[in-house]
Amino acid sequence: MSRRNPRTVLDRMRTPRGIPGFLKTASVCALIAGLLSPLSQAAASETKTAQAAAVANDYCGNQCSDILPPGQNGNATLAQILLNQAFGTQPEHAADQLGPYADLAKGYTGLTNDKINNFFNDASFGVPADQVASTVKPAGRSDVTIVRDKKTGVPHITGTTRYGTEFGAGYAAAQDRLWLMDVFRHVGRGQLTSFAGGAPSNQGLEQQFWRHAPYSEADLQAQIDNAVATNGERGKLALADAKAYLDGINAYIDASDNGRYFPGEYVLTGHKDSVTNAGKIEHFKITDMVALASVIGALFGSGGGGEVNNALSLLAAQEKYGVAEGTNVWESFRERNDPEAVLTQHDGSFPYATKPADPQGRALPDAGSVTQEPLVHDRTGSARGSSAINASGEAARTALSSAKRGMSNALVVSGEHTASGHPVAVFGPQTGYFAPQLLLLQELQGPGISARGASFAGLSMYVELGRGQDYSWSATTSGQDIIDTYAVELCKDDYHYLYRGTCTPMEKVERKNAWKPTTADGTAAGSYTMRVWRTKYGPVEYRATVGGKKVAYTTLRSSFMHEADSIIGFQMLNDPDYVKGPESFQKAVQHINYTFNWFYVDSEHTAYYNSGDNPVRANGVDAEFPVWARPAYEWRGWDPATNTADYTPPSAHPNSIDQDYYISWNNKQAKDYTTAPWGNGSVHRGNLLQDRVKKLVQQGGVTRAALVKAMADAGTADLRAEDVLPRLLKVVGSSPVTDPTAAAAVGKLQAWVAAGGKRTETSAGSKKYADADAIRILDAWWPLLVKAEFEPGLGSELFEAMTANLPVDESPSASHGPTGSHAGSSFQYGWWSYVDKDIRAVLGEQVRGPLAREYCGGGDLGACRDTLVSTLKEAAGKTAAQVYPGDDVCSAGDQWCADSINHRTLGGIKHGKISWQNRPTYQQVVEFTSHR
Predict the structure, then answer these.
(1) pTM for the whole thing?
(2) Which residues, listed in sequence order, are joined to residue 148 by a DSSP beta bridge?
(3) What gap in Å lies between CA 82 and CA 88, rounded to an integer?
(4) Cβ(405)–Cβ(817) under 8 Å?
């Protein structure tokens, strides 16, 4: 039986499955001649002058590096797409960062500082004169120059005016990502199918994100107006920057349209005619940027949700064990403040969303009454098919879960523990793998702006993650809870509710979409309407009864209607006159309302700050569960007209300066600081970094190469093999293993653990794993052992409810997360802590924060061993084809391919697979040598 097609969130754009024969011959050459247009050149002397100023303000001493696969160039003409589809040829700079990135998986073991840029780009400011590939004055402007380097094609944008700088940023972004930007402005508006085709995957994508942010055009504009009005001169400056940026984008649209070198996807999706050039590429407007921001915020910066699922699992536990014991069981699995959890901040206590002693206002549903609010209505044509309906179900499950796929990691070591005496950092966002990539690289130099790094396409008016003149910064998703669920009492009918005692109509927001077949997407014609009912307390997500009363469950997010607010923080990060040290860095990121962990290094200091608008909840409200929509349980100071409230002060957010080291891999931030996702217990992928960096710090003399090696070593490790498997084998070995199949499996697993528990090739490019049998056995064994260990004690209903809160496994080959399988990021969510704590308890070892009961074998070592041995024997008997059943990328039984990273096409250009690594997509390696 083949595995479910692994498409979950961002693998949505359909590209041509076949190329007609006549397009593989001479007509391709004709298309090339007609569609490609050369770029203009500026004087070499101007280039030298512009770059000299940037180089003079670079304090990194050639010790800043970065990487962003597959390549800088994310645009392709129709001719280039057809050549890629027919012959596999790549446009220039479309894939030249993929090889160095992939090579680190086997090349890190012998890494030294002088070899770092074999695997990374030089991220110094400017471009040496002999490395200039092109120089452009966009739209003939005299106040901005775009220089691209020979090696990677990254744009280095230098402006003599601020307008010119931002115009250049917009122009360069459109040069590199126009099609992708267009796709995601339509995703953010819930209009992807009408724009790019009605493939079920496209349907699921627009449904997921529009459910999260169902905004009208007026809502988008209101957010801009609010951000400008509430931020003084910086707000006005941000608006001017955005307008200049959009002017640059639109200038490129006009130039590429007139020159006929626009992205070929516009032809393949029916928006442009390849012969007559008829059709139109719509100009970008400022509300497009808010629509884009809503997508990025939903993916990476909105912690919380899942309160209804939490309630259902609590009720199942109470039904199984009774209220008191059931609650204890539930709390032990929730691990709100587990004493064994790895922490980013080592000292201090930062209470947030903690369990109240006497919960107030809970609105738990009556048994069996919960139904999900339908989003899609009035389906016609292909929208009625089973694939379309399944895509809608997957989109809803992903959107409503608290298990947001934050990804991203950071390793930061203070100068006290480095060889040079300067801090060292290796950090970056783990944003999945796409073609073209969601992020783009750029350098911006102009009045009040000096930075190089990565930005999301269409939002690159500022560098969002990168380096300034003498400092660098990055972020990881934090996941603290800024989303609450309210039970609004219905009155009159299903579309009126009680708001502070008054029966109030819900607001209906709709998006009607229709599509027809195109060359890119042959999905038959169809249509549907997405409908969301909004209340003062947010959109309706579920309906139920509570104590017999009909209610609608709504979700209220502190960043709802505030997607544009974070622009001020990013503006500050790019301003060398604002960020001059760790304190000003922390103040800058306090203006970012997304839920992120922010890290900073310069030549002397390191710093950390956890951002997000954390609402102050009413006394007694438990953020884990739905509460009544009544004034007594609302956020303190909440104004429904603006969706603003009282927020916890900066001092209440985890923050520090010059801690000996920091690690973050979406783990728990600090003591008493509750994160919304489940699974922050004794075993977390953050432990893979913690163990390695702590050891380096204890040894002292940390170098950039040593920290890269620690990251890469953790990025090829199997978390289960490193932190859980040794104790499982200890239980199995508590008596002689007489069954030959089980004994052989034990031997293979022991050898793999002794070798380090890595998932790496036998040699670079072999596409075969060392310890392949052991890896296959553990991949097969893990789900079997978890089910056999816990389901007998929990019962089937409670076990299923708990797995809805936290999936059992997230191995590299699993179909998981918003980026689906083949996405690199692994081991973020799983039952490893539960297994670890339970097995240690059965072994009689000390467990801080234990589970409320012992489950394996009912707590009996012998019975537990029997369970493990029997499931191990079953796992060992499974063939590779059974464990890795194949998908649309890999054939059944291909273990390496099942794990491999595949850049999912969001346009017409395809790339080859690379070996699995669990590391940031965009990554920096930095060590500043001096300070202003």
Answers:
(1) 0.94
(2) 134, 155
(3) 9
(4) yes
SS (H, E, C) 73-109: CCCCCHHHHHHHHHHCCCCCCCCCCHHHHHHHHHHHH
Taking alpha carbons only, the member of 608, 640, 595 closest to residue 353 is 595
Beta bridge pairs of residue 668: 343
pLDDT in tens, 186-220: 999 999 999 999 998 889 889 988 988 999 999 99
Say whether pLDDT at 4 is over 50. Answer: no
List of residues 6+ apart from 397 with CB closer than 8 A: none
Report residue 177 as tokens.
């990502």
What CA–CA distance (Å, rounded) separates 206 from 854? Answer: 44
Alpha-carbon distance 237 to 570, whole Å? 12
Ramachandran class of 647: left when φ > 0, alpha when ψ lies in -120 to 50, beta otherwise: beta
- Residues across the chain: 932
pLDDT for res 506: 98
Phi and psi at residue 801, to the nearest 5°: -65, -40
Q: Residue 201's closest CA among 436, 18, 4? A: 4
Highest-scoring range by mean pLDDT, 32-41, 426-435, 546-555: 546-555
Weakest mean pLDDT among 40-49, 755-764, 809-818: 40-49
Q: Which residues have a Cβ under 8 Å from the Cβ of 833 and sit 6 or more positions away?
A: 335, 338, 340, 679, 680, 681, 682, 683, 684
- Give CA–CA dist 166/243, Å, rounded: 8
Quick one: 334 exposed, middle or buried, by C-beta within 10 A (0-12, 13-18, 19+)?
A: buried
Euclidean distance between CA atoms 284 and 416, whole angstroms: 49
- Residue 733: what are its φ and ψ, rounded to 5°? -85, 5
In this prediction, residue 57 carries a pLDDT of 92
- Asked whether the beta carbons of 898 and 813 are under 8 A apart, the reply is yes
Contact at 8 Å (CB) between 568 and 235? Answer: yes
DSSP summary character for residue 901: B
Q: What is the C-alpha separation between 767 and 11, in angstroms, rounded?
A: 24
Question: How much is the pLDDT for 406?
Answer: 57
pLDDT digits (tens, 9 = 90+) for 227-267: 999 999 999 999 999 999 999 999 999 999 999 999 999 99
**What one-character DSSP code corresponds to residue 165?**
H
CB 825 within 8 A of CB 405: yes
pLDDT of residue 398: 67
Closest among 251, 51, 257, 262 to 146, alpha carbons compared: 51
